[in-house]
Known about the structure:
Blueprint: E1 2-12, E2 17-27, E3 30-35, E4 43-46, E5 51-54, E6 56-61, H1 74-83, E7 86-91, H2 102-112, E8 118-121, H3 137-142, E9 147-148, H4 158-171, E10 174-177, E11 190-191, H5 194-199, E12 203-204, H6 207-223, E13 227-230, H7 236-247, E14 252-256, H8 258-262, H9 268-271, H10 284-296, E15 301-302, H11 311-314, H12 331-340, H13 347-361, E16 377-387, E17 406-416, E18 419-422
Parallel strand pairs: 1-4, 1-5, 6-7, 7-8, 9-10, 10-13, 11-12, 13-14, 14-15
Antiparallel strand pairs: 1-2, 2-3, 5-16, 16-17, 17-18
Amino acid sequence: MELLLKNCHIIDPVTGRDEQGLDIEIANGQIVQIGKNLSSKAEVKDLAGAIVAPGFFDMHVHLREPGQEYKETIETGTRAAAAGGFTGVCCMPNTEPSISDPFVVSFIRDKAKGNIVDVEPCATMTKARKGEELSPMQSLADAGIRMISDDGGAVRSADVMRRVFEYGKMFDFLCTQHCEEHSMTAGTCMHEGKVSTKLGLPGYPSVAEDIIVARDILLAEYVGGVRYHVAHLSTKGAIQLVRDAKHKGLQITCEVTPHHFVLTDEAVETHFGQAKMNPPLREQQDLEAVIEGLRDGTIDCIATDHAPHATHEKETDMLTAAYGIIGLETAVGLGLTHLVHTGILSMSEYITKCSTNPRKLLKLPTIKIEAGATANLTIIAPDLSWTFEKGDIRSKSQNTPFLGYTLKGKVMGIINNGQSFWNA
């Protein structure tokens, strides 16, 4: 692949570059040169008005393979990721079988080989995510695993979690937790509050998230030196706990999803099962806390928690509907619309949370836009207004509450691994 990208606005938080009117020549997967009025025999793409950023990385997606290919596959999930502007993803381990041993890790890496989107597997903390016996940590480390999690549920035992942290420290894993005190959430289907009371539905209290965040921070401090990352934070209390831990100098980081900075539990009244997720959509005060956490730097990353489900699993009553929504194709549009164009984050700050920070936390190679560097790029039309329709979905599933939403800012394409992908 040889390309000449013309009239680019390069924003690279790592090098500090924020410059318009530049051309980028790419050949053999590398950036050959950057300058003005470049000429080349390569294919020319005029990107006037577009932003070229280091490739976005989503550190929390569910690709469902192996075992649940009727919902998503590595092929269809990475296709959705490319359309959404992501050059890399980290896939969660709640597959069937779960990513609890090197054999499943190898299966996923082999399936993703040659893809334009890099796939980084996350392995389980405990065997089969049962929260009882630790996964084979040495074997997983030897297989190149960087992050461990029993995502989809919390490790219930504090003693087991302590052991996880001790091994996480030994192998320098990023230990990631889905924070939910399960004895408080059994049989629930949405946030506990005025809306759940109005609808007569069993509510999931926000304190159930806060309890596990607080427990894990205490354990991480006790063990010392462990890197702990809170997945998909959703409550005001949990965000404050992370903020306080950071102020104490602990290695605590966190992520939030676009649906938690865009929607509240009121969405359940109109979207029903399509607005059922875990953690659930919270109240306005929680959404505002998420926004403030993004603004003040408490929240390190934006991740989608892309969770595809078949139609029959979502278009049912709230109690039996599956948790989760797809999110790869809408993430950038929602982020630019609700964070950048509102002035909450600068474009550079937004790129940092979508590209630089996820890679830093996973200790992946830093992406720079400079001559001689690998061409790993996300291209965005920041001011393009568009409406998200079914035809924009590349995922195998269509479970989303955002159909019909008009957004400002759209992904044009990505470049990675010597390949390019462009949205029509």
